[in-house]
Amino acid sequence: MQAVLYFSDKQVREKLFSFVDAAQGLLLVAGVRHGSVMTRPPQAREPFAALEDLFGHVLSQVIVADEGTTEGMWRDPLGDLGDRLYPEDKKRAYAASTGYVLLEDGKPRAVVRKHASPAEDLWFLQEALSRLSHGIPAPDPEKRPGHRRPEPAPKAPPRYGPATDSGAPEEPADPWRRSSARGDASSRGGAGARPGSGRARSSQADEPTPPRGSRAVAPEPEPEAKDPWTVLGIERGTPRDEARKAFRTLIAQYHPDKVAHLAPEFHALAERKTREILDAWEALERDAG
To answer: Smaller CB count within 10 Å for the chain: N or C?
Structure first.
């Protein structure tokens, strides 16, 4: 059995917990990225497809797909599951939220971290599953990722070069002498020196290197005014107490502190969304007054 849940679903956390609580036997829970350019469904990707083909008779799977949308950005169902399974161990909880969790009858039995490729993940998953079920054989140890057969030691190069006619070993050429000679020639503007090459190199060296991961963010146009009832997700004419409850829930959900660990563009998005919710509530307050 394979089930796929999506971050964009408002009930993804509750559905994930329900699958875990109702599971009988072995259950695998893992998260994947699933952007709009990915054509294959999450359950058809590896290692999930191979696990279903090989061990589907004893193993169920729940795959939580993150589409990368702004709606799903505010949810962390796998992190919530990790905290629930390991309330006293933050390291184990984080490993569970970022790797593969193996449960038996709803109880955590093992956590397998993700490796460089699905093929490597499959090997380590089969190794962990073989310890939990007699119906799953252990993987071939010779195919363990990173396992290499010992190679013969390289032959040491001869310490001296070939003998000369005089019988004495030939003196190795001095590379520093050649490089210094080239440097003297280029400094004197001799043959082989390109005009202006020194100036070009120095100007390139003076150019600043942009920080890794930085990117230009185009300014966004001013958003149009939205209906405050729609922004707060409530029907027009909702009683004041219910409207206030919806407002407080949204403010807590989209608060900038929720994305403090993410990139700067997410901070700007959270601040813009928070300002939108505040403006909507102020508009309702003005209308009510």
So the answer is: C
